[in-house]
What does this fold into?
Amino acid sequence: MELRKAHIRNFVVFVLPALFLLAVFVLYPTFSTLFMSFVGPEGELTLQNYQSVFASGDIINFKNIQQGQFPFGTLVHNALWIAIHLPLTTFLGLFLAALLRDVKGGAIIKSVIFLGMVMPLVVGGIMIRFMFDGNIGIVNLFLKTFGFPTQTWTAYPETSLLALIFGSVWLWTGFSMIIYSAGLETIPKTYYEAAEIDGASKLRIFFSITIPMLKPITVVVVTMTLLWELKIFDIVYVATMGGPGGSSNVLALQMYLYGFRAWDFSKAAVVAVLITGLTIFAAIPLIRSAGEENVQ
Amino acid sequence: MRKKRLAGNILKNSLGWIIALVWILPIAGIFMTAIRPYSEVINGWWQFEEFNPTFSNFTGALFHESSPLLQGMINSLYIAFPATIIPLILATMAGYGIARYRFPFRKTFIITVVMTLALPQQMIAVPIFQIMSSLGLVDSFWGLILVHTAWGIPWTTFFMRNYFKTLPVTMEEAAKIDGASDSQIFFRVVLPNAFPAIASAAALQFTWVWSDFFLALILIYSPSKLLATQRIPLMRGQYQVDWGLLSAASITVMIVPIMIYILLQRYYVRGMVGWTIK
It folds into this structure.
């Protein structure tokens, strides 16, 4: 498509207002934070902030990792979050999208599962606390039925992080499920018919047609999920406040605690830069596809 | 063969509904806890020996003595409407601009927009706090609206631009030949056709602003100005969790995004899927 050449007037009217707000309230603060992370108390450029943040053990706590004792450090906690939450939500979402197509009332089930995505994350944090509560939590009802020990799972250092992670699977699975559901509709029926005529088994069809056809969607689901996991804040703040003893703390909450509880902006900036580095890295496929599309 | 298919069907249906219980039970639970006195559910909301539904948890949350949720809901609405409408107007124009016009640094602008989609709010938090302090806009609704507007612009711009790229230009060209100016084309021809995309973007932006917690946390602190999401953690009770109050408050706050989801379901899901599937 041929793009019209913009007169300055058109540029000013259409793009400049958005660009101005973006520059003042998003781009400038971003570079300001980056700069802040490298500035010492006397205004000199230094790596001191990074050293003191990493030395504190708030990011990676080698001693505790060796002893196998929480907290492992916020970066490790986010990594654990990704290691458990990413594969679970992705596969579960795909599985549910495929399964619920053939289930009576599948649309209703999808809506209920998607509620986890619709509710504010603050409420999501309350839901997690509620599910894992010692007295009235549904998780404990099941454990009790099968003779397992019960407790308020978010209140103990050994289990608080895992409870949050599994609770967040409950919240986020609706996302991949909805995206995969839409993706399944885009696969032409003729592909399946042809495979069936050739006598391919259901399983074979799934792995040889469905999965490859969904690859671009999987890239998007994985990218978005990674971004969500790296930015996780609200549910931890509400459910455990990173506790007990930092055992369920995550990077984004650590940044808040440094910046707005201890009022140490330099340390907060270091953590913010760390998260941003990770999210930009995770978003590379997204950025690349946006870049390619525009070579017209 | 038919028997086998029937068996498969039954298996699929029962598996689907058993998995569905994992999501249905907690939601039913929070609802049951909200509509019953706490003394009844203390040993689990699934106990039904006594069952006296009541609104007392809801009134207790809405008119809570230290942090009334009603005030929070009103404050959140004050924020969410302008913080949806303003970025949508600006982003619709910017999205149209980059979809149709050539101008210097166009590609840089698009890449910047996509990169800001990946940014965590933590990256802007401290400077935003400092800027707002110097403007005297800390603890002010306008300060928060401004930040939400700026924060919402990248994704809404990107979203609208993707939509405009799917609209055929022939109508706009026809209008041009008839002598319409660029702004006339935009308001008379383009905007009416962009309604589905605008509805999608509005549904999502409103939901996100309503659900936001972090930006409110760093910018709003007066007890009377706290937003709905900020009041939920305050309902927890000092020594013991008051689940009745907490679940009623949770339902009250999530009812708004759920209503948007139900009313605008078509647009909502399309908005969510829209940025991912072309």
Summary: Chain A is about 70% helix and 0% strand.
